[in-house]
Design a protein that fits this description.
Organism: Homo sapiens (Human)
Strand content: under 5%
Oligomer: single chain
Mean pLDDT: 91
Low-confidence stretches: none
Main location: cytoplasm
Function: Microtubule inner protein (MIP) part of the dynein-decorated doublet microtubules (DMTs) in cilia and flagellar axoneme. Forms filamentous polymers in the walls of ciliary and flagellar microtubules. Required for normal sperm mobility.
Number of strands: 0
Distance between the termini: 68 Å
GO biological process, one term: flagellated sperm motility
Subcellular location: Cytoplasm, Cytoskeleton, Cilium axoneme; Cytoplasm, Cytoskeleton, Flagellum axoneme; Cytoplasmic vesicle, Secretory vesicle, Acrosome outer membrane
Largest sheet: none
Structural class: mainly alpha
Number of helices: 4
Shape: rod-shaped
Radius of gyration: 32 Å
């Protein structure tokens, strides 16, 4: 559980960095659109470059939204992992305490110091568990832990895939914008010549 939580934390940090690094390209694309609006007269044209810049802004925003969604899922999964780990540790601690008590009781004799008669101790407490419920509680904790680890591993894979897919989408659109700019610059140079 600790290893899985650490692995998910590392992937979450990578996702946070990737999300922050999308801000600069978004600003550049928006600034390009802003500067293109400053053109005057007949030069103020809606062309392929503008369409590709708008698509780039949309692509980056869409990628950011998906990253934020997965970041929220990672935060929730980390909380579930920690809760499951806490339950396992608490159960282990309780079992160790019970073992120490049983071990101490096992070594008690009629001649042991501090042994006395306590009235009503032989009555059965209804809140006490039986071996079956004791084992089932532990089994349930272990199953929950396994389930959380599996969900965490799947989420890590999803985040890894998301990072690859979004990077490819943004790079492809970046290249399309650059190609559009190159073509537009060539068209403008031809028109000037």
């Amino acid at each position: 559980m600790i290893g899985e939580t650490n692995a998910l934390t590392d992937v979450k940090k990578r996702l946070e960095r990737a999300l922050m690094e999308t801000e600069a390209p978004l600003q550049v694309a928006r600034e390009c659109l802003f500067h293109r609006e400053k053109r005057m007269g007949i030069d103020l044209v809606h062309d392929e470059v503008e369409a590709q810049l708008l698509t780039e802004v949309d692509t980056i925003l869409c990628c950011q939204e998906r990253m934020k969604l997965h970041l929220d899922k990672a935060i929730a999964q980390l909380a579930a992992n920690r809760a499951s780990q806490h339950e396992l540790e608490k159960d282990l601690s309780d079992k160790q305490t019970a073992y120490r008590i049983d071990d101490k009781c096992h070594h008690l004799r009629n001649t042991s110091d501090g042994v006395g008669y306590f009235r009503g101790v032989e009555r059965v407490d209804a809140t006490v568990s039986v071996p079956e419920s004791w084992a089932k509680f532990t089994d349930d904790n272990i199953l929950r832990s396994q389930s959380e680890r599996a969900a965490s591993a799947k989420l890590r894979d999803d985040i890894e895939n998301l990072l690859v897919v979004t990077a490819n989408e943004m790079w492809n659109q970046f290249n399309k914008v650059n190609l559009s700019f190159t073509n537009r610059i060539a068209e403008t140079a031809d028109a000037k010549n």
